[in-house]
Amino acid sequence: MNITEKLISSHLVSGEMKTGSEIGLRIDQTLTQDATGTMAYLQFEAMGIDRVKTERSVAYIDHNTLQSGFMNADDHNYIRTVCKKHGIYYSRPGNGICHQVHLERFGKPGKTLLGSDSHTPTGGGIGMLAMGAGGLDVAVAMGGGAYNITMPKVIKVELKGALRPFVSAKDVILEVLRILSVKGGVGAVIEYGGEGVKSLSVPERATITNMGAELGATTSVFPSDRITRAFLKAEGREEDFTEIKADPDAKYDKEITIDLSALSPLAAKPHMPDNVEKVADIGKIKIDQVCIGSCTNSSYLDMMRVAAILKGRTVKEGVSLTVSPGSKQVLTMLAENGALADIIAAGARVLECACGPCIGMGQSPCSGGVSLRTFNRNFEGRSGTKDGKIYLVSPETAAVSALTGVLTDPTSAGFDFPVIKMPSEFLVNDNMIDPPAEDGSVVEVLRGPNIKPFPLNEPLPERLDKKAVLKVGDNITTDHIMPAGSKILPYRSNIPYLSQFCFEVCDPSFPERAKKEGGGFIIGGSNYGQGSSREHAALVPLYLGIKAVMAVSFARIHAANLINSGIMPLVFEDASDYAKIDEGDEITIENAPSQLLSGVITATDKTKGFTFRLKADFSEKQQKMLLAGGLINMMKGSN
Ligand code: MIC
Ligand code: SF4
């Protein structure tokens, strides 16, 4: 067996390990963050379960830490108290980004982790089967329920050689994105192997599995070996180590080889993570901003390299450099060894240990500004500046460029390469992680006025007769569907308010139109819903009356979120039908429930006078959910 098969078989509770069939997995650990967590815990409460049934569940506060107004602070209090009551550990604001802290303090090789954030595969860096999901699926897992996925294919990435100085783990995942594209991982787990693995530390592996989310993959995973053991030992928890490796005769559906020693510094150009080119080939474009941090590149190793490059130098005039260390552990260690002083002295603007600019929480670049970021997403508008040009690069490229003022290939800029060793002991202090109460019944859950009930759908009607209220193109991200950023994120627990901003980047008139028409259908191209796990990208369309999304193809987590919300993700049987339908067309689906059960839906475009077929390729459980109008309705119905 390969690693993926080993992890799946040891957690399989239903289904067969046959590529493409539905399987149910036992979930050992869960994580939530605050932008998706409020909804997940409201849903968990609605299930009426007293205490989580997982081995470890943790809630992190890292996204909504800009508290302009009472909303975020109210949500933090809600999450804090709901955790205390129901057996969940609570990582306070300031303690760090969920994925970084989870890797440091809780991740265990061989375990499954389900997180309400698409970058949960970071845990694959330590040999976990770590997957992102919508909040509702995480709530079900906290209640002891299985997580259902389609048995993935396994793509092996064979790593050879070792990275040259100034070429880093970020360049490895950018290379994988260049080869496979943002759709290349759909339905697959990306499994790393080969001699080259031995040259990568756990944080470097985690950078690679983290940004594997941008491939659309179910997850990515590395073996758990002596390097993993050393990392866990340095975190004071060697007892959590288990070795996990692929059998010598393991089989894969596809293999690609990357020679680490042949890689050069790369950048993903605006506005897609797979729009990758060599930094040297893009040329010395003038830059306005550099942001270093995010769950992809904020480890101790990354920050130490950045500090060493900046040491004794000054950020170029006209460039704003921000640095956000990934966790309190990282920041404290930098403070104690003096590296933080080097970062500050060079002129960096040090931000708190949180997502910050990555999710548009401040630090939007200037009009048309060029911003180099060590993050994982450069979707249009995500930075908060619609015409901002975001390039995704390694910390080394970012730091060197901040000094030169232009995009610079760090391998040929005349800098000495800082050799940084992984510490044999990290500074462990869990004083910002609050354990749950022994007796939850005495805890009162605090609910501020910002927390509104979540919307519920209705059972699927016999006949749907609605307009195509919106038509969009390929690779629509959840940032298009439900933008984030500092103005909107505080309302993640207020769906009616959020709904005003649905599809704002594509068509600001959409919410009004959808309301006026009493909802309708969305027509999408390929890879509809890629990116984040935010179920708000399904809950808001549900609130606006969307009954189905008809697309050429869907991203995994978003399709699952739509189904959980009772919205049908339907795939054009003949992709050329996409072009024939225009926004505003009247579309009818007769006998919707029985057609759904048959696996194919025939719809009529009354405006154009033609019929077309849509694949309704759902498991039995998903069919039930769609008929009932979503997971919560289905669960209520079966009680
Ligand atoms: C993101 O990077 O887009 C986020 C914000 O972390 C999301 C979750 C969210 O929208 O709350 C993700 O990646 O799932
Ligand atoms: Fe936070 Fe950005 Fe990572 Fe999402 S991608 S979890 S916003 S740091």
Write a structural description.
This protein starts with a helix and ends with a helix. Helix 17 (536-543) links the parallel strand 22 and strand 23. The mean pLDDT is 97. Helix content is 29%, strand content 19%. The strands form 6 sheets. The chain has a 7-stranded mixed barrel, surrounded by 4 helices. Strands 7-6-3-4-5-20 form a 6-stranded mixed beta sheet. The longest helix is centred in the first third of the chain and has 16 residues, at 71-86. The radius of gyration is 23 Å and the shape is globular. With 639 residues, it is of the alpha/beta class. The protein has 3 domains: 3-262, Aconitase, domain 3; 266-412, Aconitase, domain 3, CATH 3.30.499.10; 464-638, Aconitase, domain 4 (Alpha-Beta Barrel), CATH 3.20.19.10. It binds alpha-methylisocitric acid and iron/sulfur cluster. Residues 63, 97, 117, 119, 294-295, 355, 358-359, 375-376 line the site of iron/sulfur cluster (SF4).
